[in-house]
């Protein structure tokens, strides 16, 4: 397929923000894509070059892109920079400049979807000395053979910033409409932007089946292929593989023990809620892989965990769900998450870090046993397997501490024990429930002692004054409302002046600067990528912010981007619910 065909779709998608319209555009397009090209096309439609679980990345920042555009367009750095400032988007810059280049198009090759993907993937393999120059020249070459509008989307794909507003839900629905739309009699009315569906229940079944397949594989490309080739049956048969991460089950917050029992039934299991980092551990004989909650591969960063899993997990093929907590080597006491967070992105001094900030793995669930999925086994049974295969070794790896009870007093005592020994509170597990990857269904609940903080996305920031003038020091925070972000307040306290003291203004500035879309006076508009945990005194109704709510005394607690993507940020519904409970 010509890349220009896909570009037409990007342009159509960019011209509307209506979700259903997006679904319609994608589904009509997918209907005519051959099975052979379906995977490639879907990946690029998502703005990806590898599936979500694949850790390879292009590793090309805006600065390098600027140079590549310079080579391809023959324009000066100053000119490109000026255009960039004006538009805030290097995609548009490359469109304008390549269009201007007179000698262009005549003689250039037609780009195919396959060729674009192949070249972009090549970028991810370039490493070592001279890699920067090699990457720049490869991208320049690609841009030179591209038409202006093709160049725009190639640049955006590389920078991982498609700006077409297509979320995972839209791709999922589009696959259902494309391959099952006829059978389900889905009719989209463009004028009214609504859909008619003959049998809602059946439709929802298909959507759920697709979502399930995606939660297990994390790859819409393979899911779409299965849907097209084998229909609903194919989706149902998609299996997880040890070594490929799947989405983790998420927790619902409960306010007290009663609510916990209401959701999880009696008796229920109560476990320590460790304040660490979620680890999905894959053991395939001697090959161990560790993934974060965001499915990033952090195996290399945690060599001591790899060792423990080899030694103390007495089964050769498993996927475990666990929480790794940092502890003080001298006192043995648990340490807050912040201490191990710095290990996640670490590329050097890894052994030293594992000496300095060791972790203990607390296993609380099992997803695959002996190479077979156990997600449909009741939790109680899964727990028995864990107890059987984990050799408990304190400060190395062990089964999460737990009790099974119907008695409130016992829970209260256990909660106190958890908090006293440095944990966040308790988790509550429903004994007869399956494991639902990617879902927040109330089979696992969290009971924290203190008021829950919010995980908000930084959408704007302001340059500081006086000695803070080098830093972005005031942050506009937003929660998620379906496919968009709505503002709930501004925070400028909680950060440190010095880097070594914790999350500092300087570190935040480093993180936010590459995300600047536009500058207006002191204020900068940001791409919504950074999630931070925010504490507050109270939620109030307020016309000041687009959410209709404002936070009283918001303060930044810590960075959350390592564990939570913006899609997982606190939602407007959660804020409304907290507001409602607070009034009560
Ligand atoms: P939260 O991040 O506040 O939504 O709380 C849920 C998180 O608690 C999970 O994603 C885990 O990383 C963590 N956690 C700690 N201990 C446990 C446990 N025993 N069971 C499940 N999750 C746990």
Q: Nearest-angstrom radius of gyration?
A: 25 Å
By CATH, the topology of one domain is D-amino Acid Aminotransferase, Chain A, domain 1
The CATH architecture assignment of one domain turns out to be 2-Layer Sandwich
CATH class of one domain: Alpha Beta
The total count of helices amounts to 20
Low-confidence spans: pLDDT under 50, at least 5 residues?
none
Structural commentary:
This protein is an alpha+beta fold and 584 residues long. Among the domains are: 199 residues, D-amino Acid Aminotransferase, Chain A, domain 1 (2-Layer Sandwich); 130 residues, OB fold (Dihydrolipoamide Acetyltransferase, E2P) (Beta Barrel). 40% of the residues lie in helices and 21% in strands. It has 20 helices and 22 strands. Strands 14, 15, 16, 17, 18, 19 and 22 form a seven-stranded antiparallel β-sheet that branches. Strands 5, 6, 7, 8, 9 and 10 form a six-stranded mixed β-sheet that branches. The chain has a five-stranded mixed β-sheet with strand order 3-13-12-4-11, covered by helices on one side. Strand 8 and strand 9 form a beta hairpin. Helix 3 crosses helix 12, helix 4 packs across helix 8 and helix 7 packs antiparallel against helix 8. The radius of gyration is 25 Å and the shape is globular. The mean pLDDT is 92. Adenosine monophosphate binds next to strand 4 and strand 13.
């Amino acid at each position: 397929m010509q890349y220009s065909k896909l570009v037409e779709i990007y342009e159509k998608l960019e011209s509307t923000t209506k979700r259903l319209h997006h679904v319609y555009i994608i589904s009509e397009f997918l209907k005519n894509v051959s099975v052979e090209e379906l995977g490639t096309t879907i990946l690029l439609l998502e703005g990806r070059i590898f599936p979500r679980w694949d850790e390879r990345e292009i590793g090309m920042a805006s600065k390098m892109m600027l140079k590549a555009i310079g080579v391809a367009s023959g324009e000066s750095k100053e000119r490109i920079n000026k255009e960039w400032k004006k538009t805030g988007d290097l995609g548009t810059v490359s469109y304008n400049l390549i269009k201007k280049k007179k000698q262009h198009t005549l003689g250039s090759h037609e780009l195919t979807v396959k060729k674009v993907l192949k070249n972009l993937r090549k970028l991810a393999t370039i490493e070592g000395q001279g890699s920067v120059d090699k990457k720049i020249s490869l991208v320049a070459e690609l841009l030179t053979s591209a038409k202006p509008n093709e160049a725009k989307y190639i640049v955006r794909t590389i920078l991982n910033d498609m700006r077409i507003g297509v979320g995972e839900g839209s791709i999922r629905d589009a696959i259902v409409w494309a391959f099952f739309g006829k059978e389900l009699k889905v009719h989209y009315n463009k004028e009214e932007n609504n859909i008619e569906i003959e049998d809602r229940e059946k439709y929802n079944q298909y959507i759920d089946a697709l979502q399930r397949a995606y939660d297990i594989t994390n790859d819409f490309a393979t899911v779409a292929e299965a849907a097209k080739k084998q229909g609903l049956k194919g989706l149902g048969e998609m299996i997880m593989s040890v070594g490929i991460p799947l989405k983790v089950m998420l927790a619902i917050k409960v306010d007290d023990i009663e609510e916990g029992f209401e959701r999880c039934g009696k008796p229920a299991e109560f476990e320590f809620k460790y304040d660490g980092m979620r680890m999905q551990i894959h053991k395939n004989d001697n090959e161990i892989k560790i993934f974060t909650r965001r499915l990033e591969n952090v195996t290399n960063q945690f060599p001591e965990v790899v060792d423990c899993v080899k030694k103390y997990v007495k089964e050769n093929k498993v996927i475990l769900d666990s929480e790794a907590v940092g502890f003080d080597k001298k006192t043995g006491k648990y340490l807050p998450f912040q201490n191990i967070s710095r290990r996640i992105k670490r590329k050097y001094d890894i052994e030293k870090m594992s000496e300095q900030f060791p972790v203990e793995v607390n296993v609380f669930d099992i997803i695959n046993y002996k190479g077979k999925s156990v997600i449909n086994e009741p939790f109680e049974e899964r727990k028995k397997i864990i107890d059987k295969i984990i050799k408990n070794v304190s400060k190395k790896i062990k089964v999460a501490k737990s009790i099974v009870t119907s008695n409130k007093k016992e829970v209260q005592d256990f909660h106190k024990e958890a908090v006293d020994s440095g944990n966040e509170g308790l988790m509550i597990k429903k004994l007869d429930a399956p494991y639902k990857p990617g879902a927040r269904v109330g089979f696992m609940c969290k009971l924290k002692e203190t008021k829950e903080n919010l995980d908000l996305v930084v959408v704007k920031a302001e340059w500081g004054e006086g000695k803070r003038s080098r830093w972005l020091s005031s942050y506009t925070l937003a929660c998620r409302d379906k496919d968009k972000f709505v503002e709930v307040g501004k925070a400028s306290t909680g950060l440190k002046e010095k880097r070594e003291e914790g999350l500092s203004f300087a570190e935040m500035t480093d993180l936010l600067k590459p995300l600047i879309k536009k500058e207006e006076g002191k204020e900068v508009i940001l791409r919504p990528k950074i999630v931070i945990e925010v504490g507050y005194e109270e939620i109030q109704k307020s016309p000041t912010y687009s959410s209709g709510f404002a936070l009283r005394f918001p303060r930044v607690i810590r960075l959350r981007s390592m564990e939570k993507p913006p899609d997982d940020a606190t939602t407007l519904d959660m804020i409304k619910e907290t507001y409602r409970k607070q009034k009560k």
